[in-house]
Write a structure and sequence with these properties.
By secondary structure, the chain is of the alpha+beta class. The chain has two domains: about 10-85, DNA polymerase, domain 1 (Orthogonal Bundle), CATH 1.10.150; about 100-215, Cytidine Deaminase, domain 2 (3-Layer(aba) Sandwich). It is built from eight helices and five strands, in the order H-H-H-H-H-H-E-E-H-E-H-E-E. A hairpin with a 4-residue loop joins strand 4 and strand 5. The longest helix has 24 residues, at about 75-95. It is elongated and about 65 Å long. The relative contact order is 0.09. This is UPF0758 protein RBJ67_18975. Keywords: Hydrolase, Metal-binding, Metalloprotease, Protease, Zinc. InterPro entries: MPN (IPR037518), RadC_JAB (IPR025657), RuvA_2-like (IPR010994), UPF0758 (IPR001405), UPF0758_CS (IPR020891), UPF0758_N (IPR046778), UPF0758_YicR (IPR022820).
């Protein structure tokens, strides 16, 4: 029987689309070359096994690669570049698209911006009355487990761009996305402050590591 070679990632992508690639095939497409004695496919597979997932791999720091054979500064730079390119893509996409098409798009954007942050960051997405994105920005930054939020500043930014609605978000660097009592209290204060200016708070998302909590999904807004 004639042996049929497996399709290379580039050929597979051209024939069936980029989403047809497995994680290791997609990673191999970016890395392009392996290391001495190891093909790029073997390298990609071993990296994913070592770090557990694409997320674990792309959020690892340089020190975590010291026990990974064949990974030097050049390969590490490639991996960090992939993560940063994705973050910038989502940032631009939010302003280029006509609207927030789905909750998934909002979540993916916020995860790209906040998941890897080492301290708490509070940000907002401001929208017009047709849910088109007017602006998104980091409003407040804090420590590992606390960020001070000023509701009046959020309202002030909303008024500047004539926003009709806002989506709130912040991260938990600990990785656990469950809201604290303080999170719920500040959300209530922001909603009350926004109501005076007829600005709707559509959601507040807390971003952890590989998880998130949406206040709207839980019926808390």
């Amino acid at each position: 029987m004639e042996h049929i070679s497996p399709m290379l990632p580039r050929e597979k992508m051209l024939n069936f689309g980029i989403t047809s690639l497995t994680d290791d095939e997609l990673l191999a497409l970016f890395l392009r070359t392996g290391t001495p004695g190891k093909t790029v496919f073997t390298l990609a597979r071993e990296l994913l096994q070592h770090f557990g997932s694409l997320y674990g791999l792309l959020t690892a720091d340089l020190a975590e690669f010291k026990h990974v054979e064949g990974i030097g500064v050049a390969k590490y730079a490639q991996l960090k570049g992939i993560a940063e390119l994705a973050r910038r893509f989502y940032s631009v996409r939010m302003l280029e698209e006509d609207s927030l098409l789905t909750p998934d798009m909002t979540r993916e954007f916020l995860q790209s911006q906040l998941t890897d942050a080492e301290r708490e960051i509070f940000m907002a997405i401001f929208l017009d009355n047709k849910n088109r994105v007017l602006k998104h920005c980091h409003l407040f930054s804090g420590t590992l487990n606390h960020v001070e939020v000023h509701p009046r500043e959020i309202v002030r930014e909303a008024i500047k761009v004539n926003a009709a609605a806002v989506i709130l978000a912040h991260n938990h660097p600990s990785g656990c996305a469950q809201p604290s009592r303080a999170d719920k209290e500040i959300t209530a204060r922001i909603i009350k402050c926004c109501q005076f200016m007829d600005i709707r708070v559509l959601d507040h998302l807390i971003i952890g590591r590989g998880e998130y909590v949406s206040f709207a999904e839980h019926g808390w807004i």
